[in-house]
Design brief:
Length: about 200
């Protein structure tokens, strides 16, 4: 009887040790920062790029959405390169620039680029005096609720208006009279008054 009790205690101790032993050899999850945003983070020199992504509905133009953080005291002009097209953003020392079309922040739009919605594209971030960084950025659309107002708006193409008379239609018939005048030999007396007033 005593042997059974000892065996039971030994089995219980083994199970308890096995169940809690993983905590001793596995790192705590709170020690790792997990990215829960849609965008990509990157750093180059004193510039941090946070939550970088592109919004494009057409695949031919795209808006960069993200945040540039300058951890240094010196202002930096950061170059954002996409598909051979460059755009620059000035970031003051120890400051943050949010790029999004929300009525409060500036936007960075790329025209004539290849950004297929749902794909991943290469972007290059750099500034003078530091080695740039290349990152793969997701291309999303404005279909998602949080991005509905962030798609770039295409510049409307001006339409030419022709001033030439139309060749179609019917020709007027009869005597045409200008508005405010009377047909025949009668003249408007006010016209003569205007000519004499000086």
């Amino acid at each position: 009887m005593r042997a059974r009790v000892l065996v039971s205690v030994a089995v219980a101790a083994t199970i308890a040790l096995g169940a809690t032993g993983c905590e001793f050899i596995s790192p705590a999850e709170t020690a790792h920062i997990k990215q829960v945003t849609d965008g990509i983070d990157a750093s180059t020199g004193s510039i941090d790029v946070r939550n970088a992504l592109l919004i494009s509905d057409t695949g031919e133009d795209a808006r960069f959405v993200g945040t540039l953080v300058n951890r240094g005291d010196v202002p930096r002009v950061v170059t954002l390169q996409l598909d051979g097209t460059d755009e620059t953003v000035r970031v003051a020392g120890n400051s943050t620039v949010v790029l999004a079309d929300d009525g409060q922040h500036d936007t960075v739009d790329f025209d004539g680029v290849t950004t297929k919605p749902g794909s991943l594209v290469k972007m290059y971030f750099s500034y003078s005096g530091a080695q740039g960084v290349s990152v793969t950025v997701p291309v999303l659309t404005s279909a998602q609720e949080e991005y509905q107002t962030l798609a770039p708006t295409s510049t409307p193409t001006p339409t030419s208006t022709s001033t030439a008379p139309s060749e179609s239609g019917t020709q007027p018939t009869g005597d045409a009279t200008a508005p405010g005048t009377q047909s025949g030999s009668q003249t408007d007396s006010s016209a003569g008054d205007e000519g004499t007033n000086g």
